[in-house]
Amino acid sequence: MLKDAIGSMFSAFRKIFTHWGATLISFLLYAVLIAVLYFLITTREATTLQVVLSVAVLPVAALIVFFVMQALALSFVRIGVGPGYLLKRAFKDCWKLMVISIPVIVIAGLVIHYAGRLEVYLTSDFYKTGSHLKLSVFTWARAIVLFFILPSIAVQLWISTMREGIATAFRGFLRSMIRAFSPASVLIYVTVSLVFGAIAWLLLFTKTAVASPWVELWLLGSRLAVALLVIFLGWQLILGSMAEMTTARALKDDLSDISQS
Questions:
Q1: Torsion angle of C-alpha atoms 7, 10, 11, 12, degrees rounded to 10
Q2: Over the stretch 125-184, which tens digit does the pLDDT of each residue have?
Q3: Is residue 244 within 8 Å of 11, Cβ to Cβ?
Q4: What per-residue string of b and e applies to 169-202 under the rule 16 or more CB within 10 Å gives b?
Q5: pLDDT at residue 120 tops 90
Q6: Please, how many CA atoms are within 13 Å of residue 219, restricted to the half-sphere of its CB?
Q7: How far apart are CA 243 and CA 235, in angstroms?
Q8: CA angle 101, 107, 111 (to 5 degrees)
Q9: Which spans in the chain are helix H?
Q10: Among residues 141, 229, 227, 236, which one has the least CA distance to residue 188?
Q11: Cβ atoms of residues 156 and 185 within 8 Å
Q12: 3-state secondary structure of 261
């Protein structure tokens, strides 16, 4: 298990930089996604154009760019395939990833909605009774569900969809859930998240004492840019490692079937 996970991470890390064309395209899509989200958050509903942008165009654009990025990242395991083909294939496959993600998105929405209501209750109860433990457990449980359990399931569903098609992925939903929480998958997700998350955290929240406000602003912008790059590389590594491990497992199964026959 440990050997497979480490091997998958090293292989994915190498391919991220050897397939530099696909990595560059994926990073540009990432930059576009950040820009779209920024305009989506900052756009005020003052004119008809701004209403259309904030309600229709920008959310759809963000959704398409996000899933194209995921499809492209999961295609890094295709050795000898150019970035142009990978991008073209990613645009064709992105809608499949959207459809297979609907159950996960619905669950995430329900968790956010009801967790918000529960948090209001626990917060008011906290001030009345001092139930700090309940609020802490709830906060950690919500974070684990939203940032570990659901993303892990989504990644396995995406991989299954890319390899076997959307119909097979839906039929194998339970199988994808089991794979998401296999020891190797958990090890990859937790290891990469902790390492790259810690680096991004330090970049964002480490304060540097400087005399000039302009220098401080420049440092803040630089740290933010590097932190976003670290987050991008970490997520690419998670997707690539999962895809590598799935490919290795499929190859072992095929070789086993051939030997048995």
A1: 120
A2: 555 555 566 667 778 888 999 999 999 999 999 999 998 889 999 999 999 999 999 999
A3: yes
A4: bbebeeebeebbebebbebbbebbbeebeebbee
A5: no
A6: 13
A7: 12
A8: 140
A9: 2-18, 20-42, 48-52, 58-73, 83-100, 102-129, 132-144, 150-164, 166-171, 173-180, 183-205, 213-260
A10: 236
A11: yes
A12: coil
CB-based contacts of 4: which residues, under 8 Å, 6+ apart? 184, 245, 248
Burial (CB count within 10 angstroms: exposed 0-12, middle 13-18, buried 19+), residue 71: buried
More confident residue, 261 or 162: 162
Q: What is the pLDDT of residues 203-222, one digit of tens each?
A: 988 877 777 777 778 888 88
Q: pTM above 0.90?
A: no
Contact 62, 40 (CB under 8 A): yes
Total length of the chain = 261
Number of domains in the chain: 1
pLDDT of res. 257:
47
Q: Are 9 and 191 in contact (CB under 8 A)?
A: yes
Query: Among all chains, which residue has been given the structure tokens 């992105």?
Result: 94
How many Cβ atoms sit within 10 Å of the Cβ of residue 163? Answer: 14
Question: Can you read off the two tokens belonging to residue 33?
Answer: 């996604």
What are the CA-CA distances from residue 70 to residues 34, 52, 64, 208 (Å)?
15, 26, 10, 35
Angle, vertex CA 3, rays to CA 198 and CA 153, nearest 5? 60
Domain span holding position 109: 2-260
Question: What are the pLDDT digits (tens) for 61-73?
Answer: 899 999 999 999 9
Q: Can you tell me which residue has the tokens 């072992």?
A: 252
